[in-house]
Amino acid sequence: MRIAIVDGGYASYATEERGAASVGATIEMRQCHGADEVIAFAGDADAVIARQSPLDRSVIERLERCHVIARYGTGVDNVNLEAATERGIVVANVVGFGTHEVAEHAIALLLAASRRIVSHDRAVRAGAWDIGPADPIHRITGSTLGLIGFGAIARAVYRKLTGFELRTLVYDPFVDPAHVRALGAEPVELEPLLREADLISLHAPLDEATLHLIDAEALVLVKPTAVLINTARGGLVDTIALRLALDEGRLAAAGLDVHEEEPLPADHPIRACERAILLDHAGWYSEESTEALQQGAIDAVVAVLSGDRPASVVNPEVYERGVRGSAEQ
Prior knowledge:
elongated
């Protein structure tokens, strides 16, 4: 059996090699660029593991022997789930591997943007001093935090910020309001959250309903002293509208770890915005989370090739339609 990793990014693949060996499979890795290269490399593979390579319908329909596609990550935006399900291919992701890392990253961005850490660092390096009065900063303790989405990462952010004595508003139509209240936060609709929050942190998934959830209309509602943080998915924010709000002083600052297009284009207007902190989708990263991510991906592959069900299946309906079956069957 052959397991194809269609895009690299890790220093070692020893974890995957051990997992493959446990089912008598081999691992091959190639940095594929585009659908044609993925098809040429993985067309006859029994399993595919991907990071960012687009696995659209044209690719999936050419995966002649594939039983499972495992994604290094939680989101599967780059995989055509409908095509995979039609062909009986299990799509598995890895959940929970970077919960603490992303939560801590969101908090770091929140503090850095609120306290103007990056802009003050730049100014001091350029010879400035006593910058504060020209760049007003507001107290974080006792302010209002707005969490858009209340999954595991958002709840971790909430717990870790307890010492700041924040009033916390939560918008998540898929979470029972009673559960939010039981944890000490306040369930609200999106509009009051945007109007009242001093600190807004995005933790929603990206789909048709949440695409540009934070757009020009939403940004009209926010306080001019508010800070917006996004460590979830870049498409949640209309970046052009965000840039305009920051430039016009209708939003104090923003911290973006994720972007609508990644890597962020060199000529993107947000790059020139001094009130935006821009990072490279690194929120998930630590040495520990990387090991957990790689282990989770190969575990999913091994499970399917052994005739078992992975810990997290994104298209569970594939089991109703009929999985292609393990390589042993």
